[in-house]
Each structure stands twice: as structure tokens, then as C-alpha cells.
Amino acid sequence: MPLKFYFGDVDSAFSSFWPISLLMQLQGSETELMKFFFAKLSIPLLAIAISFLAPQTAGAGVPSDFPYGLATGNIANTPHNLGATSVFITNGTTNMCIFCHTPHIGVAGGPLWNRQTLSSFTAYGTTIGGSFIADNDISSNSLACLSCHDGVTSFDTLVNAPGKGNGGVNTNQPINFDWVFTVDGNTVSDVLTSPSAVLGTDLTNDHPISVTYKEKIASLRPTSTLISSLVMTSEGLSVAAGSDASSTTATSNRWAVKGFISSSATIGDLLSNGKVECASCHDPHFQNTSWDEVESTWSSAPTVTGLFLRRVGGNSLSGVCRTCHAK
Fold first, then answer.
1. Which of 56, 210, 68 is nearest to 145 (CA)?
2. Structure pTM?
3. Beta carbons within 10 angstroms of residue 19's beta carbon
4. What region does 178 belong to: left with phi over 0, alpha with psi -120 to 50, or beta?
């Protein structure tokens, strides 16, 4: 009887896998029910259990674990989570989104943006293609990233305070909340200091941003180019054994675009108003652990980000560069 009662409870849950009528036919014999359960239902049950336990966003560690259609939003275990639940933590708030976003009265810079850079920047200037980027040409899309990566503006310089009743709205001048930040219990700077992450205010030695994408200039491909159609080994290249490029990286070109690993995105989808910006190559929400080169260098799993590059496999085979530049 208990076994019959159990199946009666789960009929509706498994009706999409096994017809209720079949279960009813088997309920006359507990022995047959047990055979049915272990022979037929154990596999679907295991699959369902795994689907609930397995993470639903990227971060498994190898390119083949990043199939087309996979959602890529996951900052919880990355340095972009500056709240009290990550490796880089503060005593000021458990919020992780507040360091970039606010639910109400955001400022220009990004969706419901909660930051403003305190710096002025020196832009790239004249590119080899003849485009000129003036200092005041840097768009709000890239200034959003530079509001931390300038190495000047503190993490806790925010427009709106987090939480309920913990401060008002100050859209004219951000507030420095003077929170304490720690790593492994040790107090650290509230300003970005890592040489690999700080761009500074002089952008003349970085890839041009806020620059109009001009086809054919610098061998730039057409904006209509389907990103997934590009294969980095199709131009006579071979991958040496033991290199960082996996077979998946070598035979496919998967990018995180608009929150998913996309099979339909074009180069044009990487641009903002026809211009190359920080977010053309980087997705601040994508914990891209698929680049072997990064994983073998960064030993602490929670800090592995793949530099937030959009391309699965990172820049192995120079795939980030060669997606736009036909080199």
C-alpha cells in the first residue's frame, strides 16, 4: 500500500514522462511496481535531481559546458560581487547588485545605474584607420565600467544607498559610504588596485573605445557577420597538442550576447550605436571559466572570471580579436 500511495502522489509530476494509465496498470503488483521504478523511473528521477542541483548558468570550467542557449548571468562568485557574500567582501551591505545598479532613480551610464566616475580621461586619439576619439567622446556605456576600473573611484561611491531607510537619493554627487572591504579577513583598499584590472585615466595605450566600427578598416569584418559562423582554425591553422585551445574552442565561436550563449548574434550586436565599447568584448555578468589559460593561472576558483570576456574559450587562438578583425 505505501508504494501505491507514493506513485499516486507523483502521477501528475511524471505524467509527462510516463502515462498515468501505465502506472495504474502496474499498481496491482508491488513487485512489478518496484521493477518499474528501478528500471524505468530511476533514470528520469536522477536526471531531474541533477537538473535541480546543477548550476543553471555558466561556470563549469570547459568550453563544451557552454552550449548555445545557456544563460550567462552569474556574478555571485566573481569580484563583481562586492557584497558580504563573496571573497571580496564589505561590512556595509549584503547586496551585490547595488554597486552598479539601483531599483529607482538611476543616473546616466547604464540600466538603473548607481555610479558616477569621478575621473576625467585621455582618450585613444587617432586610430590607425584614421578615426579620432576626443576625450569627451567616451560614451556612458564605457564610463560605467571606468567608474571602477579607473583606479580612482572607490567601490562604495554610490548614488543611492542600499536597503530600506539607509540614505536618500543624491543624483547630483555620489556619496562615499566609507565601508570596510576585506579579503580573507584582511582589510584591503576600497579602490581597484590590481594591475590587470586598472586601466587608469590614460586610455591611449588601450584598445580604442567609443570608436565607430568601420568595415574593412583594420581588416574589420562586415557587421552582418554571424559570429557563430566563424571558425578560428578554418584558415589553415592547426592546434598543437597540449595547448590551451580545446576542440570546442577550435571548431566553434560561441559568444555570450544579450545574456545567453548565442548562435544568432552578429558583430553588429556587439556594438553600441555602431561603436566599439568595453562591453563589446566583455560582459560584466558572465563568469567565463572556459578559458584554460586563465584557469591554469588563477588558482582560486571563486575569483576565476575569464576576464569577463564574452567569447567561450576566451582569447585562445586570438578568437576575441579575430572575430572582428579578419587576420
1. 210
2. 0.76
3. 12
4. left
